[in-house]
Amino acid sequence: MTIYEFIVSNGVLSKEHEQDLKRSRGFTDELIKNNRFISGGKYLLELEKNILDHYSENELLESGIFISNGKSINLSPILAEERIIIPYLNKENKCYYIRPHKLGLKGVSAEIYHARTAGKNIILTEGEFKATACEAWG
């Protein structure tokens, strides 16, 4: 299991973020569930020890999930912020990357969003939420 899949599998989407996705973006319950959106927040700090027990320091730093202060490594503070975390999913619906809304992870390049649904036609959008809306339209 990738570190990203671990975070998404243990994450939750707050009621506030769920309502925001429905109200502001027009997303349905099914679309939200299928795209596995979660909320960032301080609750993710509770996963820190478990993550450190299961993944190498190198994996954690390369993933951008953890950062170093020169003495130790800790969960990136942007993941503890109250913002939606967008999972990037493969064809098996497993997460291979995450991006906190409007931010990126330190030292990690951008990825193609919705590679799992890419076919003959490719539509470029401004962001992941617009790509998700395109998915809903077929």
What would you note in describing this structure?
It is a single chain. The chain is α+β, with helices and mostly antiparallel strands and 138 residues long. It is 36% helix and 14% strand. A three-stranded antiparallel β-sheet has the order 1-4-5, covered by helices on one side. The protein is globular. The model has no long low-confidence stretch (mean pLDDT 86).
Reading side by side through the largest sheet, how are the strands ordered? 1-4-5
Structural class: alpha+beta
Q: Which radius of gyration do the C-alpha atoms yield? A: 15 Å
User: Secondary-structure element sequence?
Assistant: HHHEHHEEEEH
Strand content is: 5-15%
Summarize the biggest pleated sheet: 3 strands, antiparallel
In short:
The chain is α+β, with helices and mostly antiparallel strands and 138 residues long. It has helices spanning 3-10, 15-25, 29-35, 48-54, 57-63, 128-137, and strands at 38-39, 66-68, 73-75, 84-89, 95-100. The longest helix has 11 residues, at 15-25.
Q: Any descriptors?
A:
138 residues; alpha+beta; three-stranded antiparallel beta sheet; 6 helices; globular
List the helices and strands and how they pair.
Blueprint: H1 3-10, H2 15-25, H3 29-35, E1 38-39, H4 48-54, H5 57-63, E2 66-68, E3 73-75, E4 84-89, E5 95-100, H6 128-137
